[in-house]
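One chain is below:
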Amino acid sequence: MDKSDARLKAYITDILKKDKTLNELAVKAAVRKGLKLGRAPIGAGVIREVRKSLGIDRPRAISYARNLLAKNPTLEAKKVIKEVGERFGISLQAPDISHLRPKGAWGKRATRTKVVATPRKKTQRLFGTASITREGSPEDVARFFRSLAQ
């Protein structure tokens, strides 16, 4: 590794230690601005490598959330998301952690309230079109359609 790579990694490490929540684009922009690189390409692999060395990569965050939910399966999703965000700087949303919860965890909390469904009025819907032909004066046709509407 030459000096420029070491300097780049050190700068990325400093940036990520200050703010773990920065995504790759924000880190690239900060590096370009801080090191005055202009439009020089910065590889995402370097940023991912530094994130992994700092322990703030997504696979570790998901395994941490899985272990946290294994210890306490009834823990609220908001608390898990908040703790993972603080610790790893990664935002896990509800779909990301819902499959991590152990299978029997939902049965323990489902006994809170009973929901009773209200009966609904069933309506019939006609599908397709109906064609009606009628001969007569326009007043007779209008009277016929008014009678259908009533």
